[in-house]
Amino acid sequence: MRIATAFSTRLAIRQLRHIGLRLFGTFSGICVAIVLVFAQAGFMNALVGSALNLPRALQADLFITGPQFETMAYSPPWFARTLLDKAHAVPGVADARPFYAIISQARNPDDGTAMSARFIAFEPNRPVLDLPEMTQALPLLKLPDTALLDSRSRRKFIPIIESLENGEEQRLYLQSPAATLAPEMRVIGLYGLGPDFTIDGSFIFSDLNYYRLFQVPLDRLSLGLLTIEPGADLKSVRDAVAAALGDRAKVFTHAEFVAGERDYFIFQTPIGIILGFGLAVGVFIGIVFVMQALYSIIDMNISEYAVLRAMGYRDLFFIALVLQIALLIGVGAFIPSLGITSLIYSLVGDATKLRFTLSLDIVGLVFLAMIIMGSVAVLFAARKLRRNNPLDLFG
Amino acid sequence: MLTRAVLKGVSFSVSEGEVIIITGPSGSGKTTLLTIIGALRPFREGSVRFQGQDLGGMSEAGLLDIRQRIGFVFQRHNLLKSLPVIENVESGLHLLPETDTEMNRMRAEAMLEAVGLGGRGADYPENLSGGQQQRVAVARALVRMPDMIVADEPTAALDAESGRRVMEVVRNVASQLGCTVLISTHDERIFHVADRRLHIEDGVLQVVH
């Protein structure tokens, strides 16, 4: 059974060219829809990605957490250091380092208001991050009350970053739950990691300074970071550690830990729902506009299509025709949308200090969304196409 | 589905190459007759034999196959505005078993020549006069070398001169191809091209001569 595919392609191109600029409004609408989907996907990626900065940067093959651990977004519940020693003893584990994290406030030196920040700490002789500026400053971190500030921190931290860049040490008071008088830390340098979207800034301490300032006993760990021996099998070491610790701790591989954080933000917070909704709205708008383009082309040609049908062209031909028109419009709108999106990404990225990258994942996702727009529009248009009846051509 | 007897006792046969004009007031069943013979409309009772095949009770796919051997011309030319004239003519060929890009182009050019529009292939339909457009539509119907042409009021939208030329073209090319032509019309000026005229009134056939 012939469906004259080559002819359908040619006709699709010709009809689009024929309608030309009259389609401009509709075409712009489709671009808006695609850019909207890009924006949502970009925000999702940037927001969730920002929250993953720290977990991704931690140098570990396996993570140990307390049994109630849910996310790094809040101060993780502590677990006993003895568990880390137990894990260290498991065959295949090369090293086991403690990691501390707490969310608290520093006092703004200008106006005395509180600035929320994440405070992380580890043993300076056994660093858990591999950041060049931090590695250089490690010896200084061993001095009492010293700290490093994330150079990409936002808002109220920016004046502090600027004076640090000028080589001036900054003294900041901390809100410490246990101290009678607010302890003072000396911020002596910067490191670059990038803030997440919930908290504007973060500081690094040595474990001893962390204890000094927050008075959290050092045998209460936030995370335990394990490296495994070269050649050891990751999954079987994980299982062995999990078996050794029982239900007093949870054990994750690095990939599992990062995925867990991502899932937390996408499924446990409104972010996933809000951005998912935005994405759906974008796709919906796209469907409406593609449909409008198809309808106007079908309306212009309905009796011509009926003649083709009289000559023996089948449903499949007309579906192939509108499908190709939809794809041509979609791909045509996709390219300028990509340009607009990269502009928007760089503007919003500068404004938020979040990372907006036009990654292959995002482009692929949005392209898929565009294909969905086109296909759904074609489904509706196919119903309209059924109405081209050769019998209507007779006077 | 409701059924209604539109045609009553209509019976005639047409031989190869014959040109038949069907006349009758609106509502007489003329269009129904034409669409049934053109394999466009399924029917319940009676029989229509097209080259020995009975169209009655035929599936949609079977009717589609029959339609490959029929050319249609309508009151409006219904040419695809986005395609140049030559490609409109070629649109009649893509579904034929012998379709071939180069051969299609040659056949379409020859057919445009035959309807007096040689060299106009690259023009778009909107740049042609009404009579020329209708001749392109005739070329599109004839290019597939059908066994039968079904034309519904082909000259209704044309002035006398253009209408006459269109009918001449239909008559000449059809007779060269040995193609049967069925024309429904009110246009008395074209009665003379027919071998026979059938008149229908209230679904009943009256042979005029």
From TrEMBL, chain A:
Domain annotation ABC3 transporter permease C-terminal: ranges: 278-390
Alphabetized InterPro entries for the sequence: ABC-4/HrtB_transporter, ABC3_permease_C, DevC
Transmembrane segments: 21-43, 271-295, 316-338, 358-382
Lineage: superkingdom: Bacteria
Pfam assignment, any one: FtsX
Name used for this protein in its record: ABC3 transporter permease C-terminal domain-containing protein
Gene Ontology annotations for the cellular component aspect, listed alphabetically: plasma membrane
Main location: membrane
Subcellular location as annotated: Cell membrane
Membrane topology label: Multi-pass membrane protein
Protein keywords: Cell membrane, Membrane, Transmembrane, Transmembrane helix, Transport
UniProtKB/TrEMBL annotation, chain B:
GO cellular component: plasma membrane
GO molecular-function term, one example from the UniProt record: transmembrane transporter activity
Alphabetical UniProt keywords: ATP-binding, Nucleotide-binding, Transport
Domain ABC transporter, chain residue ranges per copy: 1-208
CDD domains: ABC_MJ0796_LolCDE_FtsE (cd03255)
Keyword Amino-acid biosynthesis: no
InterPro entries reported in the protein's UniProt record: AAA+_ATPase, ABC_transporter-like_ATP-bd, ABC_transporter-like_CS, ABC_transpr_LolD-like, MacB-like_ATP-bd, P-loop_NTPase
Keyword Transport set for record: yes
Sections of the chain in a coiled coil: none
PANTHER family: ABC TRANSPORTER, IMPORT ATP-BINDING PROTEIN
Protein name listed in UniProt: ABC transporter domain-containing protein
Taxonomic source organism: Oceanibaculum pacificum
Classification of source organism: Bacteria, Pseudomonadati, Pseudomonadota, Alphaproteobacteria, Rhodospirillales
